[in-house]
Specification:
Shape: globular
Strand content: 5-15%
Oligomer: single chain
Helix content: 40-55%
Number of strands: 11
Number of helices: 24
Largest sheet: 5 strands, parallel
Structural class: alpha/beta
Radius of gyration: 25 Å
């Protein structure tokens, strides 16, 4: 980021310009940023969390004035001129100059923030709304956080009026005011995020004013170190993936406490897939499949992640398709003006982004919260590049709301266990155990896709859980999976299931733990793989890929 200021701004001594440019760099996960008014030129290391009252010298790598430009001309030209940046000298400068990486990354800080909000909200909702059970409180807290984040990001991107949420906390019953904004958003966006036919829990909540006020105030400059317009989609994904590892439990006295989910404890934590892995897998599946295809053929491609978590692989696949379509239309503009899928600025129209999302992207997860987060992240991706004007145009011209409802694309259920589970089990359909199993029938869930023979692409990072920790489903796996082994890991079944969901010409790729290559329990998977058409297996050996995880993947 380069922030250009008026000559009257004192770049060396004023706190504001330094804090502002560091917020941009830090939120965008970029290593350095520059603030200049030509008279002064300041370079900042953006790896450290910006704090509102930091002196302007904090994290400053270099400071020059116009009097230094001749003397320092070689350095400035070699590092920052367009020619040199295109040749990579800027990256070399960044690598050589920034030795100390900041400890507070934007994802860990944002996670801390939303975990704090969950605690505030859970506590007040449990105390003030005694009739609600655990599931309803978890649902309500998640929905409120998702809605606030969505609207706040829209404000920073210029899609919503900046400061709308702030105005709502001026006076009166603050949650009611906030809820008024959610209802307006429902009229405008139409995503499941603001669906009050389905959501009967959040409209009637009682929430303390103080809690709402604190959450909203923490989202705005200068209290907030985050610049939401530049927060990358993968950061939101990684934050939510960690966030979803915990749940709200109620004590007998109806007080809320936050605990790690049992399945996360069993798996030894939550592993968010780094973006470079997602990109690599998408490029070698979706990319290979669409090579040489026509627009009409690409329309029919169906991409699925059967354990979608917060949606990182689906966002990667969606972005790949958006980029492909943009290139295609730029080279082949349609003959008729009314059919143009590009805006006057040369971006894809809202309608086109919506069409691609609904046509091509599908996912399933056993966790209801994860399903909601995947939808939220895909919708934020669909909203990128929108403005108040473009949204107004869609509403007035087509009389339709801006975002698609993803309930037919992203579904909640157990990808590994079908409805036949209930045939053999003497199970009470309304019991806790049944709720936990959450069986999912793929052919009923996506009938049109299976009429065509299955998905074209299956990608993802399935959960890693040793089977002795999920003993209640052993007998089902033994009957239904060729690679059953008494102590196999859950990801093995996800591999077999993922390949079975493909049509005969489909592409499959996962990142999983590499233990199956060497262990006894991996033997059935190794045998099964010999019958498949394998293009490539990449083993990372003992190189760490996941942050804070001792799992070594392939």
């Amino acid at each position: 980021f380069v922030d250009a200021k008026k000559p009257s701004v004192n770049i060396k001594a004023d706190i504001a310009p330094a804090y502002q440019v560091r917020r941009y760099g830090w939120s965008g996960k970029l290593p350095i940023a520059i603030v200049t008014d030509f008279e002064e030129f300041s370079i900042y290391d953006c790896s450290k969390k910006p704090i509102q009252n930091d002196r302007p010298s904090v994290s400053r790598i270099q400071y020059l004035t116009y009097k230094d430009y001749l003397k320092e001309f070689d350095f400035i030209w070699e590092t920052f001129s367009k020619e040199r940046i295109l040749k990579g000298s800027f990256d070399k400068f960044v690598q050589s100059d920034i030795k100390k990486r900041g400890t507070a990354t934007v994802d860990s800080e944002f996670l801390k923030e939303i975990e704090g909000w969950r605690k505030y909200l859970a506590t007040t909702i449990a105390i003030r709304n005694k009739s609600l059970g655990e599931d309803e409180i978890n649902y309500a807290v998640q929905k409120i956080i998702d809605r606030i984040i969505f609207l706040r990001i829209c404000e920073d991107r210029g899609v919503e009026q900046y400061g709308n949420l702030k105005k709502a906390i001026k006076q009166g019953e603050l949650y009611k005011n906030l809820f008024g904004l959610f209802q307006i958003a429902d009229e405008k966006y139409n995503s499941g995020l603001f669906d009050f036919k389905e959501d009967t829990t959040t409209p009637n909540l009682v929430i303390d004013n103080k809690v709402i006020k604190n959450i909203v105030q923490e989202l705005y400059y200068p209290l907030s170190p985050f610049e939401f317009s530049v927060l990358p989609a993968d950061i939101l994904g990684s934050v939510y993936e960690q966030f979803l590892g915990k749940t709200i439990r109620l004590t007998p006295a109806h007080h809320a406490k936050i605990e790690e989910k049992p399945e996360v404890r069993k798996a030894g934590g939550v592993y968010y897939t780094p973006k470079y892995i997602v990109d690599y897998i998408v490029e070698n599946t979706v990319g290979k499949l669409i090579e040489g295809k026509t627009l009409k053929q690409i329309e029919k491609i169906k991409i699925c992640d059967p354990a979608c978590g917060s949606g990182s692989f689906l966002i990667g696949a969606y972005q790949y398709l958006l980029d492909w379509h943009l290139k295609y239309y730029t080279k082949n503009p349609p003959k008729k003006k009314k059919d143009n899928p590009l805006t006057p600025e040369g971006n894809l129209t809202t309608a086109e982004k919506k069409r691609i999302l609904l046509n091509n992207i599908y996912g399933v997860d056993i966790d209801t919260q994860a399903v909601e987060v995947t939808k939220l992240n895909l919708l934020l991706k669909a909203m990128e590049g929108e403005t108040q004007a473009s949204i107004g145009y869609t509403l007035s011209m087509f009389h339709e709301r801006v975002l698609p409802n993803l309930k037919d694309n992203i579904k909640c259920g157990n990808s590994l266990i079908g409805n036949d589970y209930y045939d053999s089990s003497q199970i009470d359909l309304f019991s806790e155990q049944n709720k936990k199993i959450n069986a999912f029938d793929w052919e009923n869930g996506f009938p049109e896709i299976f009429k065509q023979g299955g998905f074209d692409v299956v990608i993802g990072n399935p959960p890693y859980v040793r089977q002795e920790l999920i003993s209640e489903n052993k007998s089902y796996f033994e009957i239904h999976y060729q690679m059953y082994h008494g102590s196999a890991d859950l990801y093995q079944y996800f591999i077999e299931k993922g390949v079975s969901l493909l049509n005969p010409k489909g592409y499959f790729s996962y990142i999983v733990a590499n233990k199956w290559m060497r262990t006894n329990y991996g033997s059935p998977l190794r045998t099964w793989l010999k019958q498949q058409r394998i293009i490539e297996i990449t083993d990372f050996g003992d190189l760490p890929v996941f942050e804070q995880a001792t799992t070594y993947p392939c």
